[in-house]
Amino acid sequence: MSGGQGLTPVGSPNRRVQRRSLAPAHSPGLESPPFPRISSKPITTSDSSRALGSSFVERVYRNTDGASEVQQLLAESSPAKPLSEADIGRVPPPPPPRASSVAAAKGPTSAIPASVLDIPSQRLYALSVVGLLAAWKIYETIGLSLESGQTSLYLFIKWCILDFALLYAGWRLHIPKLRITTAMLYGLLAGSVFLNLNMFLFSSSVLVLALKPVGLGVASSCLRSIKSVPLVGPWLVGDSELLIDTFQLDDEHILGRHTIHILPHSLAHMNPTGKTMCIDSREAGQRTWYSRLVPGSSHRFQERQLTIPMLINGTRPASIMYAHTSFETGVRQVRAVKNINGLRMETVASYPALGNWVLATYYLPVVEEGAYVIHSVRDSRGLEFRTVAEAQATVVVGCPTAHLSWRKQDENSTFAVGSDGHASICQRVGSSSGDGALGLIDVVVEGFAPMDVSVVRLVNGHREAMELDGIGAKETENDGDENQWARFQRRTSAYTLSDAVLQAGEYVYRLESVRDAANHTVALSDTTSGASAIMARMVVHARPRVAWASGLPASSSLWLSDDRQRASHHALGLQLTGQAPWTVDYTIDTGAQVLHESRTFTTATAAALDARQAGVYSLVGVRDSYCAGTPADMGRVTVERAVRPTANVSSTAIMARECGGEIGAHITLEFTGRPPFVVSYRERNLRNAQGRAATRVVRTHQHRHVLALTPSETGTYELEFFRVEDDNFPSGQPMFEVVRQVVHAQPSATIYATRMPPAVCRGDSVKVPVKLSGEAPWQLTYAVAHADHHATFNITDIGDERHSIAVGPLDDPGEHTVDLVRVTDARGCARELAGNSATVRVRASGPRAAFGCDSNGVRLREGGDARIPISLSAAAEFPVELAYRRLDDDTVFHATIRHASSLSVPAHGAGQYVLVSARDMCPGSVDTVPCAVHVEPRPRAWFATDSLLKSEDSWYLPSTCEAASAETVAGLLPLGLSGAGPWRVEYFVDYWADDTAQSDSVPDRSTLRSALVLDPAVLPIEGRAPGRYRYRLSTVSDERYTRPQPIAKPGDVVAVEHTVTRSPAAVLRAYSKDGKPLVGNGGLFNRRSRSQSVTHCLAPGQLAPTSGESAAWARARDHLPEFRIEFSPGHPPFDAWVEVLPASGKTEVVEVLAIPGHSHPVVLPDHVASRIGRYHLRLLRTRDALGCEHRYDSSAGDLVGGGIDIEYIEAPTVRPASSSPASRPDRSVCVGDILAFDLRGLGPWSIDYLYNNARRSTTATKRLFRRIADVPGNFTLSRVCHRNAANDCCSEFDDLSYAVNDIPRIRVGRGVDVHQDILEGDLVHIPLYLTGRPPFTFTWQRRALASESNAKSKVLESHTVKDLDAYEYTITTSSEGTFEVTFVQDHYCQYPKA
Prior knowledge:
Layout: H1 2-7, H2 14-22, H3 45-54, H4 56-62, H5 68-76, H6 85-89, H7 99-105, H8 119-145, H9 153-173, H10 182-201, H11 206-227, H12 232-237, H13 241-245, E1 254-255, E2 257-262, E3 267-270, E4 277-279, H14 281-284, H15 297-304, E5 307-315, E6 317-325, E7 332-336, E8 344-351, E9 357-365, E10 370-379, E11 386-387, E12 394-398, E13 401-406, E14 416-417, E15 423-426, E16 441-447, E17 451-459, E18 462-471, E19 491-497, E20 505-515, E21 521-523, H16 526-529, H17 531-534, E22 535-541, E23 545-548, E24 557-560, E25 570-577, E26 582-589, E27 594-601, E28 608-611, E29 615-623, E30 628-629, E31 636-641, E32 646-655, E33 662-672, E34 677-685, E35 694-700, E36 704-709, E37 715-725, E38 733-743, E39 748-751, E40 759-760, E41 766-773, E42 778-785, E43 790-798, E44 802-807, E45 814-824, E46 830-832, E47 837-842, E48 848-851, E49 858-860, E50 867-873, E51 880-886, E52 892-897, E53 904-906, E54 911-919, E55 925-926, E56 931-935, E57 940-943, E58 949-950, E59 955-956, E60 960-961, E61 974-978, E62 983-992, E63 1005-1013, ...
Helix pairs in contact: 8-9, 8-11, 9-10
């Protein structure tokens, strides 16, 4: 048992230690290193030694800090499979500790070692610090919220720093379970800043407005609890403004109410609504004897059972008897409710003060139809309840039901009902007769007639609602029965639904609801009536149809052909509708006989009749798997047998009109067969023995066709016709017909205009190509026409078929037309030619060009490129070639202009350019006016020397004073400029703080600046800091040279020096009469300026003088401080101007002139410094002997500009506020009154007062001082002092003493709420007891009884009793209601306060 002994010092049971050792001591939150996991197999001695020695047991064994670490590890572990105690006992002692194993076993915890402070103590201290800081923040937040509309930047910054420090410390310490991650740190910091903004800077934010009332309420409650602690409480809380604003009088000044309730009579009413009810006879007796033994069955039975509501207003009933009248027999029976406590009851209202009085509804169960009325209701005392006079009987009828039933049809009908209850029928073709003409389905209803049924018919998904009204109306006619209740009996009726079923598809009939004569509507569902009872399904099968396919010819015939490219039979396509299989009946009329045939198809796809026999095919009928149908198409298809085509060929010669001879032949072709026809023949010229025959094809849709043969060459032509085709025989039929014809061709000539040029130049010639045909040689006559002349020419002996006619030279510009007139061949046969011409356009001149320069020519930058604009007049379709040169050079430059958008030529350097020539396809002319190309000079900038002074080797400006504005000396640095403005000038400003420094020394500061200027231009100079300045020009650019150009023109002034002298500076200081400097707080007027503040309290005898009191003012001056102006080293004498700014009133300026030294007193006028109030002294400007001035700006924030704040105060005074009870002449107030006083003088104030002989002292920062009179006694305000005054300025008072009176009290009875029940006519005496000082005045009211405990009811009466000297009063009444007191007043005070 050594293992158990090793665990004994830490105080943990062996079983828990063993469970802990099986699980790794790993906590994700602390990022502990994982420990070895022990497997679940049985642990041997060696295994357990290694496992426990390297995990939890080793950590526990080596722990020397107590049980806290062990408990933490046990809490963090998750239990694994426990070991038995025998296994634990076999665990050997742990091995000796090793440093590495100990370090690995110990996970990261807090940054503070556990040996210094254990982990739970660290958490306790951390949470304590957080709680203290939170309480401190809440305290300061509430204190700031009491100051309406006030914010504090100081509190915002302070709490942001404190929150950051607290969160950072939590992030660094890593305290377990309080650890803050980096993401949490950022989120908490953002939330802290958001809360601090709303608490301390945003006085009207949504967060402040929402939390301020809650915070004030909680804080005031805490302060009252602390203040109630004897001795210590008042000292800790003090006079808190929060207690004043949230003070409330206790609610014990008016105690008790008396409620009187007059008991009514008990009442019973059956079925208050008077509704007729229905009962389901099937469910009324469904409860069997064995269902009573099943748990919960009674509750379910009661839920389904019909009950009649009976309203009871009174005591709980002890016996209920009712009368039942049967509808069938009319017999009336009186029955009693056996178990009243077993009835279901719903309590509307309960009145415990009236005993067992309730307003409730009892539900009386019924199990049969009939008329029910109340016979009697009695309570436990035997008192009978009243019932409603002339109450009608409650009628309970049977609930209506309905179901569907198929009707029987004759044997020949296609109507059938399947085993599943669904029906089927074939589609009807007419609505007057056929299947279902007498109706297919009945609606059977049962109930209180007449009844209405809602039926829904779905035809192929289309919903139709039908209302069947008045079913069973005839059966309800009175047949002389003397039973008046017989009309409520249950009756059964049927209604037949007739449907034409003209539309195929699915018909579904469903009963939705049934309604009886008493307006009882029962929604029929599958669960209540069964699906087969309320829904019937019928399938209407469409009759099949058959028709010819749309591709078959309706008026023409189909042909049967023996050609290999045509079919020897035809498939006559059919269109079938219905359910497969189909049987189609048809006939074939061959002329000799009519054949009747039929064919069956299993699919409608590709259904067709195989037509192999000629004849007329007609459709007769069709049948599918369900029904028989008729053809939808009564058309006929004709199939004929085709015959082979033939062609008959004949010819007739064509004679020439101009010359004798045959010029061709007309070939006539006559066909038999079916068009279109195609005939093939071979054409051969026998004159050309080596020529090959040309095969030609003739196509025609006519049975007779004439072919005209007119070849252009002379010879004997042979035409061999060898094949003929038609539509039925596309492969063709052979034939052999030959036609020969001698042809003499006619001469002709044609111009090839596409080979002619589009235009020619003036004076050029042109060749017109011509092609001739006929017998050579030829003679050609042509004409050349122009707008103003016409000429005819002849050419003879033309032996070549292709010839060119030379026309020209053409000197007249414009269009020339060449027309062919006549051609004659070798046989002398002449032929006139018409419409064969060509047009030649002759250009009048070539292009004209000139330079487009203005008088200034073309300008370019140095090293840049330029182009010379060209003015050109030329044809757009021809490129223009230009030649030009410089006048001072013989080099000719060439340029080609191809587009109108590039009308310019490049310039080759500066000079005068002139055009030499211009041409396109024709030579042109040029303008010899030259164009000048100039090079623009670079821009320049320099300093103008008109206002400058010159020394030996430099230029400089006259010296100026410090702080001079730039506008004062703007004209002292004028610039000289050349180029194209505006100019951008860059220059350096060198600065030496020492104005005696040499120009060649290194400046203290050198700044590069840039300025955009126009001519004339000036550069601004520096004048605010004293020292020496040098201005050096660096670069300049203008509109032409946009890049900065260096300034290197010899002789230009590019550097100017300037000296700024220091202006006189001075400060105002305050001294006491003994010469000690007075150093006060910050300024009172301008918080941004760091001005001195001097406060002087004027005691009695030191007030401002009036007429005849100059001696008093002289004595007062001896106590006033002395103000002096002190100058820095400069050039005396000095002049100074001091501004005196009172808090209210006119500002004055005091001049102090010719100050010889560097220190001088400032004497303020008597009318300025003799008044009580605040003043501000500051320097406006100073001037030295050189004329340099220094102006002071109060917004600069320096000590000089700040000046001195002076305040003359007198002893403070106090007077009661006019709106406060403290202003009453009798000095009498009540508890709860706020005593408010107006404080005059300089705040803050120190106030001493006595409350019930207890002396208290407080500090007030507001001019309105308030205190709450929270207890009766005496209050005296004795003294008020200025808290921050230099000397004690106090005022004592002996007329501000007040008597605080208590609030009067009144009790109704014993001071509690009393509820009393009485009968009509009884009297009640209600006593009232008063406390205070008579005479009393109070108001009591009687209110109606409230429906709810917290609801305010209507005031029935109100009475005010005045000038009551007694301490007791009695109210006598017999009325019902709540009696309460709403107002009470004695000699001094009242409650509630006005």
